[in-house]
Design goal:
alpha+beta; 2 domains; two-stranded antiparallel sheet; 8 strands; 13% strand
Amino acid sequence: MYYDIFDHLLTEEELVKDCSLKGETHSYFDELVKKGLIFKLNGYYSVRDDEALALKRKRGQDNTEASIPKARQMAKLISKFPFIRAVALSGSISKGYMDSYKDIDYFIITKPERLWLSRTMLVFYKKVFLLNSFRFFCLNYFIDENNLEINDRNVFTATEINTLIPVYGLELMRSFYQKNEWVRGYYKEFPQKDHKVEIEPPDPAFKRMLEYLMSNSLGNWLDVLAMKFTVKYWTWKYKGKKNYLFKSSFRFRRDEAKYHPGNFQNLVLEKFNANVRYYEKKKKLKLTDES
């Protein structure tokens, strides 16, 4: 029902993993289909009986497979910037669904007190060398190594964390998962895409050199300056937003940078709750939250 918000159908494998089902699972789904509580459409499952959704999911899955190599390549590029400690794919591509027009999102962990400096370098690269294209370079969430625990504890955040695809800084990502064990309240098989820690190549010389040159009071000053400039820009660009919407869509602290215009998280949560109420009324049943 949560994925239905995005017109996104699920495979049996995804459902088994997300719902932590054990043993012979076909009977679960066969019974739900027989009762008309869910529908099986070309090998996918949905709470809506709409064949077009199955075709859409198949196209999105094909687009994902085609986009993953480029996304990994760009994640590796991001990892070469100063003070970047971990990079993971997030958003649509991490769920196995990519429209042809979708951005590729990245979840990034930085060195403490250098988050805004590293973010500004990446934004500069995107605007100058990628002509401000978001196609393979959408930078919407940064945290630093001292702030690994995510405080927004809800189904939206849990799903985003659970489906991350780590690309760089795999050992740090493992620490990130440990700090966010609360996700198991939503997904018992967390993390869904935990990767084995592999030996990663050493950072390039220019990254090490720039970090050395800015690991001082100058670097501190530049980081604070980058944060202040960005906050002023966001405030000016979205000055028409109501104050509570602005605060929920953006987060700007020394250890966290969240850029989600449109208050997307809250809109999804509101839609999810509405979907649950509508489904319960339509099917004349009461869903229980076993978590």
